[in-house]
Amino acid sequence: MGALLGLALVAACEPRVELKPGDPELVRAARQIFDTRCANCHGPHGRGDGPAGRGLSPRPRDFGDPAWQASVDDDRLRRVIVGGGAAVGLSAHMQANPDLEGSPVLVGELIRLVRACAPGQDSKGMSERAGENARAAPSP
Ligand code: HEC
After folding, report:
1. Domain 18-133 sits in CATH 1.10.760
2. 37 lines ligand 1 (CB under 6 A)
3. Which atom of ligand 1 is least distant from the CA of 91?
4. Mutate to test the pocket of ligand 1, among 35, 42, 57, 117 (most ligand atoms within 8 A of CB)
5. How far is the C-alpha of 72 from the C-alpha of 55, rounded, in Å?
6. Is the separation of the CB atoms in 115 and 105 below 8 Å?
7. pLDDT at 132 over 70
8. pLDDT digit string (tens) for 44-103?
9. What φ, ψ does residue 77 adopt, rounded to 5°?
10. Within 10 A of 15 (CB to CB), how many other CB atoms are there?
11. Which of 3, 11, 35 is nearest to 101 (CA)?
12. For ligand 1, atom 31, which residue shows the shortest CA distance?
């Protein structure tokens, strides 16, 4: 038992760069995770219109829906993102991301991205940033 506990502690203490909220590198890391892992279903703006998302039933919701935003707390979003849809009784198509469990600050930043899809949210949100990317794209 003691040995088991010790092992768990060693694993938890492995050097891992845990960045602070608002750190540009953290913002970039979260954005990259969203683009590579989430956007395929949720769409680049979180509208639920990613290429894979459109074929699902139920489809991923529009994160821009203010009524939905108001109905969920961050704790639930954290459980969905880390544990997957099945963890909260949603579709299992919403995959778990167990590797993020040890990175609460990074998950917090992902939640901030999801929140930023709501209308009138902070201008550093994903719609705004995706817009920047879209404008930057055509240049060679
Ligand atoms: C394979 C497709 C797919 C991928 C990839 C995916 N999701 Fe989802 N996600 C879904 C679907 C489908 C739902 C809706 C489930 C339902 O309503 O039953 C969902 C629901 C959610 C919800 C809403 C939960 C609620 O309360 O309604 C959040 C937040 C979420 N996903 C975040 C993410 C994040 C962040 C990522 C990337 C780390 C991600 N998802 C990756 C398909 C996906």
Report:
1. yes
2. yes
3. 18
4. 42
5. 25
6. no
7. no
8. 999 999 999 999 999 999 999 999 999 999 999 999 999 999 999 999 999 999 999 999
9. -60, -40
10. 5
11. 11
12. 94
Judge if the beta carbon of residue 117 lies within 6 A of ligand 1.
Answer: no
Backbone angles phi, psi at 66, to 5 degrees: -65, -30
Q: Does the beta carbon of 82 sit less than 6 angstroms from any atom of ligand 1? A: no
The residue type found at 51 is: P
DSSP string, the chain: -HHHHHHHHHHHTS----PPTT-HHHHHHHHHHIIIIIHHHH-TTSSS--TTGGG-SSPPP-TT-HHHHHH--HHHHHHHHHH-GGGGTS-TTS---GGGTT-HHHHHHHHHHHHTTSTT--TTSHHHHHHHHHHHTT--
AA identity, residue 76: R
As a whole number, the mean pLDDT across the chain is: 83
Tens of pLDDT, residue by residue over 13-26, are 555 566 788 899 99
Question: What's the CA gap between 133 and 65, in Å, rounded?
Answer: 23
**Quick one: 21 exposed, middle or buried, by C-beta within 10 A (0-12, 13-18, 19+)?**
exposed
Residue whose CA is at the smallest distance from ligand 1 atom 1 = 93
